[in-house]
Amino acid sequence: xxxxxxxxxxxxxMTYCAIDFxxxxxxxxxxxxxxxxLVPLEGKHQTMPTAVFYCTDRxxxxxxxxxxxxxxxxxxxxxxxxxxxxxxxxxxxxxxMRSMKSILGSALVDQTTEVGEGYGVxxxxxxxxxxxxxxxxxxxxxxxxxxxVVLGRPVYFVDDxxxxxxxxxxxxxxxxxxxxxxxxxxxxxxxxAAFDYEQQAEREQKVLVxxxxxxxxxxxxxxxxxxxxxxxxxxxxxxxxHGIHIAGTDFDRHVSLNSIMPxxxxxxxxxxxxxxxxxxxxxxxxxxxxxxxxxxxxxxxxRVAELKNMGGFYGEPVHHTRLMKVINDRLGHGLISRAxxxxxxxxxxxxxxxxxxxxxRELARTLQHQEAAEAxxxxxxxxxxxxxxTVKQAGLKASDIDALYFTGGSTGxxxxxxxxxAAFPQATAVRGDRLASVATGLGLHARRLFTA
Length: 452
Prior knowledge:
By secondary structure, this protein is α+β, with helices and mostly antiparallel strands. Helices cover 36% and strands 21% of the residues. The strands form five sheets. Strands 1, 2, 3, 4, 10 and 11 form a six-stranded mixed sheet that branches. A five-stranded mixed sheet has the order 14-13-12-17-18, with helices on both faces. β8 (112-116) and β9 form a beta hairpin. α4 packs across α12 (437-450). The longest helix is centred in the C-terminal third of the chain and has 25 residues, at 369-393. The radius of gyration is 23 Å and the shape is globular. The model is unreliable at 2-13 (pLDDT under 50).
């Protein structure tokens, strides 16, 4: 999966890094004399939300804004990560882009989207902009130019479509090379996590890595152990890899549709006309408002005009009023963030209070554990089935798995991990760093690969 064969053989060890470019969060590892080190990306934070905010107001820039490089398009300042999300939440003029990884392998990747002030940018260029920022932070920490990189990738960018999956990897490779990397290698994210787990393994084991992030749920059965750790070629230790394109952002969408969108009219009915049965309110806008990378499509002028004229479709006028408030004030990302927070609160506290006062004064919803479980049930079942299939593909039984290693942001959801542990009752459940295990493992792989 290398771009150039043996390109790293004669280069100094410090010219390489590893990047975990995630759907929700990203991390970077660089080489030091003491080993691989995670780069502080925002203050002391070693992970950073995968987000870019394009600032359309040239005079009123949010904290942390970076001026666009000379000759680049669009000529707008940007903020990244937490600063990008905060700029959007604080109401600065501009456009927030999140979950960019989700567009890889889709028709959107080469399409241009408006970011404000008459400027447009290709979705792939948004990814390039973000990767350039990560490389610059890594180079500042390393103190030298970095030209080699190991990038993490899911087992499948696109389920059951090998051609689109290959296109997704090619697009990510092109973005990495566009920012200055000349030697690009890929490693599956769950396998990288296995390398991280291997550092604590005291004996040879068969470990099922569950890497469940924002966009995909990936599983790998990997043979690990102290004696195997120094080996560069670990292909014989990768017993099976499998995955499914369901994860945290899908959970956010279900919580949004279940607990937030109904107050805007989702699932409601229109008025009865001439004695006929009321018809359901059109639902597409609610699915788009609940999907991170589609939210901005709702704000297109033609779409806004269409939705504005749909008041007669609503039996409860307040639903349409609230919907138009969300659209006119561009509150979509704020609402899906509320859904994401509610998902986390339910996982840790058993209940969640969802504040919707941005839409209407004193408007709120409560999400209970059982309600969340029912909303997520179908997705959780498919994820567990994918894990079981992975073990079968390795020619093993559930009882053959020694350890179940959890990594990825969505493994903080107890509803999910409880079901996976139940499927492999004899395996020892081990929780890695949910947001940094993959980056650490990618760094270990990069060190072996580029210093071999």
